[in-house]
Write a structure and sequence with these properties.
By secondary structure, the chain is mainly α. It contains nine helices and no strands.
């Protein structure tokens, strides 16, 4: 089962072009949804305006330092999710993030190439399992309003749309693949649920946190740049670095 392309069996009931068209449509929905989100929230305008203000007020950052900042942003903030101070939160996020990448890439490869190597179905299962481990761990044990405020883990808001639809897609996808491998009569039913959850995941970009994966690297880069040019986004220097206030270290406790 782990080495079998679950989408290959669909060719017996539908043409390969159907699922391929569906995948392309999901890509279009993500691109369109991200653009709508950018226009509605003015995210791009905010970043560019803030960058221009920082350049006019702060010191000039040369090209070499810009490259260094970009590399640090990619390695620390994107690849390692360095913005999370809590170790559990970071591990859950990394599991979900890399699981999502494996899950999506493997799906695309298998849909467009039914005779692909068995490594891709294995990566698909691994990605879906990583999503479930990281996502359910976050949902039931790490969410702030559940862990700290004692709310029900089943309490949902619009901000939860992304993680819930992602968990639904991965969970239902694995159930469908498992049932299909055993020629169960329920396989078609769960495939329909899988398609619904996946469509909700990629079609709800303007209303979910999906687009944050594109905004967060830009925000992290802008933050690092603002510290490099001395503007710090109009924020005071860190209290644990009193020398940045121009005060003696012995007065740091008063701030």
């Amino acid at each position: 089962m782990l080495a079998t392309n679950p989408f290959a069996a669909l060719s017996a009931s539908m043409a390969p072009a159907v699922m391929q068209t569906y995948v392309v449509l999901m890509v279009v929905l993500v691109a369109a949804g991200t653009l709508i989100d950018i226009i509605h929230k003015g995210s791009a305008r905010y970043f560019f305006d803030n960058w221009r203000r920082s350049r006019s007020k702060g010191s000039r950052v040369d090209g070499g330092e810009l490259v260094s900042i970009a590399v640090k942003t990619a390695v620390v903030d994107v690849i390692a999710s360095g913005e999370f101070c809590n170790a559990r939160r970071r591990i859950a996020h990394l599991l979900t993030m890399y699981g999502f990448l494996l899950y999506v890439i493997a799906t695309v490869v298998m849909v467009f190439n039914y005779s692909t190597s068995s490594i891709w179905p294995q990566l698909w299962w691994l990605g879906a399992l990583m999503i479930c481990v990281g996502g359910y761990w976050f949902w039931f044990f790490i969410r702030v309003d559940v862990a700290a405020e004692g709310n029900s883990p089943f309490r949902t808001t619009q901000a939860d749309l992304f993680i819930l639809s992602l968990l639904g897609s991965a969970t239902l996808g694995m159930i469908w693949a498992f049932l299909q491998a055993r020629a169960s009569a329920w396989a078609g039913f769960f495939f329909g649920l899988y398609i619904i959850a996946t469509t909700l995941l990629f079609g709800s970009v303007p209303w979910s946190k999906f687009a944050h994966m594109f905004f967060k690297p830009a925000a992290a880069f802008e933050k690092r740049l603002s510290y490099a040019d001395g503007t710090r986004s109009n924020l005071p220097a860190a209290a644990d670095k009193p020398e940045q206030f121009g005060k003696p270290a012995k007065h740091a406790r008063h701030y």
